[in-house]
Every structure is written in structure tokens, then in C-alpha cells.
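From the thread on structure requests for the teaching lab: each student submitted one protein with a one-line request. Submission from student K.M.:

"Model Membrane protein insertase YidC from Acinetobacter apis, C-alpha cells only."
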Amino acid sequence: MQQWARFTIIGAILVTAYVLVLAWQKDYGNTNSTPENTAVVSNEVSADVSTSQTNVATDVPTAANVAGNQPANAETTATTNQQLVTVQTDLYRVWINPKGGDIVRLELLNHDSSKNSNQPFVMLESDKNRTYVAQSGLIGANGPDSSSSGRPVFEVEKNSYTLVDAQAAARTVGQAVKVLTIPMVYKTANGVEVVKTYTFTQGQYPITVDYKVINRSQQSWQGQFFGQIKRDDSVDPGKSSQGIFQLGTYLGGAWGTPDEHYNKLKFSNFNDEKLNQQAQGGWVAVVQHYFVSAWIPGTLKLTQADGKPYTADLQSRKSPDNMNIIGFTSPVITVPVGTSMEVNATFYSGPKIQSELKDLAAGLNQTVDYGWLWPIAKLLFLGLETFHKFLGNWGWSIILLTVVVKMILWPLSAKSYRSMAKMRVIAPEMQRMKEEFGEDRMRFSQEMMALYKREGVNPLSGCLPLFLQMPIFLALYWVLMESVELRHAPWLGWIQDLAAMDPWFILPLLMGVTMYVQQMLNPQPNDPMQAKVFRLMPIIFTVFMLFFPAGLVLYWIVNNSITILQQWFIAQNVKKEKEAVAES
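Reply posted by the TA:
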């Protein structure tokens, strides 16, 4: 029975290790991706490169087959030296291409590209290194984006906007929230005016993209609004390679509806298992480590009527040049002569902050993917977030969380440790019985079970603490790997990133020491082979932990340290009880 208990413990430890290795490679690690150049990108973007990267005719989705007028030609055509429109807020630095009005570059000012870099994190870009852009437009019978002359060229009042302009305007009218609007105008030869407006709000990542069509022509206008994300197969810039392991996180498409909140769609399946779903209140996205870009269809307003949510077609496809495209199209919209219509959507490109994403669309917050242990992971993150509010440090928050978890599990683990302490006390008696009965295994097993019953010992109880800790350990791993709040979060001294491995390997070595001490407090195996395996486990796990996030190793050290104190305290009590019984 004791051997089975030890084999169970060893098996549980190995299963934990195996599951964590699988977790690293979960969602494929994007093994089919092409290498990405690591050259530093300057703050100034070449208009020539960006324009050429976003003017491919195949970018535009196929419109619904509805009878109508042919697309009107533009009065002007695109020029290769078109200057990009730059926008800067407190969170973003954005470049918009007047041809098509697409976002061709987006930098996150509050997130560094790497721990030791002052360069902002580049979310979207379109150059020789990577193509990752947000596109939107009007297609269909009269949609300018379906014109044979190519994407429409919008006129803009100026080429540079900042939130400072919006702040000044807000103070003039007494507004509390600063809103920056950028109208872009396109006019057709037959009298249709299209106004595309970007709206940025201070302190908020969501960007509103609004299209207004004013029909001053002599015939009805028909078209569809589309929004999509186009990305190549370059690697995730947030993915890190540490030591012999690559920390694999999901890079690919995702979508959701009110009925099916969160679904993944690998880039490789954009054609074979392509998305083709109608939904009102849905969303589409490209997900990467810590960050997400998403389109959320909005409302449609005809003339003076109130805007109402529209049912959008969620779609995915591979372009002929092997680009991954996921997006949506609205229903066919008809604008009679002398009337107007407005249709909009929200575009989000930034960190995966759960509190912000959940208010945008149902299931969008699940792009913070905690895996199958998400209920435990969410509770752990809630605890970490609560402690961080008054501690101000994620490292100390992890330590306090570990203490709280140990206190909650104390009643269950105490029974187990008490049984293990009793086994350590009766170990000499078991050795004597083994020598006495020799090869008579049947008699030895009978006497051993009688001893267990007499002393109130459960040999399988040693497995309980490990089984209790395993799901918490795995869930905390995903919290550290998926929560952008812990990205580049320092603790103290040499630990400047709790989501990365310890650069000096001090924490893994301390973990190995605590694991060895804890093991010495457990009853030692009588079988020489088992004893050798148990002595090797601290070494194996120390090597294994060298490449784990420092925050996870910190949790394990604190957990082991508290367990050592708990086991020592219980062992002393059991020893005193045994001595008291012997004296009486």
C-alpha cells in the first residue's frame, strides 16, 4: 500500500510536469510562421511602403449579389506619394492611409516593445517586416471600395492630429471627456458624398469608425459596410523564447456571438474551416500574446431614425497572396435620393484588459485565455488584483495570495500532513516488521495494515496536498502568461519581470532547496529505487523551473516554505503525543 502511495505521488508530479510542457505548446506555438525581422522600426513610416501594402484589390471582400448601379468613379486617383495622417492620443500613435482610410500602423504608448526598451509596442504595421492592418470601407453596387479605379482617396483637413486639439476644444464647450474626431471626405462625380470619421477618446482604447453617406445624386445608392483585419504569418512579437523552451501562446483568429461567446480559428484554417456566421452583437479578432485587435459591428441609422444594431456576416478567408483576413460585412444598405445614412463599428487594438473588453462585446474578454482551469484562474487573478491595489507590487501580491490559498487549504492539508507525520514516527516499527517477516509478503502486508489501522494512518494521504496544489499551480501559470497587467512587472532586486524567467536562476535554486527540505520531512521510502527517484526529484524540478516565469517559481517557493513550517509543526505535535502515550 505504501508503495502504491509513493508511485501515485511520483505519477502526479510527472503528470504536472507533462501538462505544463503541453501548456507551453498549447495552440501550436505558431510553428508554421515565418521568421520576423527584428530591425528597430523608426517612428516615421514610409508612405510609399504603407500605401503599396494596402492597395491590393483582393483586400476588399466580395459584396452581396444585389442588382444596382455601377460604382461611381472617383474625381481623383491615388498618388504614390500620398502622405499618411498621423494621430496621437494619450494611449495611441496611429497612422491612417488616406487611400481607403485604413489604419496601417498603431503604436501603444503605454506598453514598451521589450523590458529594456523605450520604444512603444508596435501593434499594427505595414512595411517590409510585417503586414498587420485594420481596414474598413463601403462595397457593393455603389460602394467606392468596389470601384474599378481602386480604393477611394479621402480628403483630410490636415495631416496631423493630437489629443491636445481635442482638449482645447473640450475646455471651450465645458466637456469633461476629451474626444478627438477626424473626418475624411470622399466625393463622387455624380453627387454622392462619403464622410468617414475616426473618433478617439481620452483614456480609452476603442476607436469608433463611422461612415456617413449623403446621396445628392439622381438615383438610389446601395452598398455594404465592411471592417476587417489583415495579417501575414509573421511570428507573435509578444512571444518569448527562454532557454530550451519556447513559451507558446495562441496567435490566430477568434470570433464570438451572443450565443457562442468565444471561438478560435487558426490562420491555417481560414479557408478549410472558414468563418461564415451571421450575428447581431458579434465580433471578430486577431489574438496574440497579451494583445488583441478586434472589430465589433455597431449601429445603422437611416435619415433621422434612431440607430439600431445590424446583423453582420462574420467571415474569414485567405487572400491570393496568402494573407489572413477576418472581418464582417453589414447587410445591403439602400439610401434613397436626397437622404443620408450612418453606419459604424468599433475597432479595438491594444492590451487584453478584461474589464474593458467585457463591456465591448459578449465573450471578447475571453481572449484572455486561461484554458480549461479558467474558473480557478479568474479567482486567482481577482485575488492578485485586489492585493495589488493596496500593495502596489505584483510580486508581494503573489506572496500574499499564496499565504491566503494555504490558509484556505490548511484544514485539508493538515490532516494529510498529520498522517504523513505518523508514518514517519512508525517507520522504525515498519522496518522491524520487514526484517521479521522477511520474504513473507502476505504476512508483512497484513501486519502493516493492522499497524496503519491501529495508529490511524492513511498511506494515500500524502497525495492529497499535491492534488490540491496541481490545479492551482497550472491556473496560476496561465494567469502569469495571459494577464497583460503582469507583463514586465517587477518584484525586487534582479526580478524585473515576473512573467519571464529568473535571469540569475536564484529563485529556481531556492525552490529546489525548499523542495528537498520538504522531502526530508516526509517518510522515506524503504525501497532503494524509490528512495533514489525521490532524491532526484528536487534536482529534476529545479532544472525544469529554470525557464518558468519568475512569478510562478516565487509562488512555489512560498508554498513550499509554508508547507515546511506546517509539516514541522504537525510532526512535533505528533511526536509529543507519541511520547505522552509511551510514558503513560
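TA comment: The longest helix spans residues 550-583. The chain has two domains: 2-22+378-583, 43-369.
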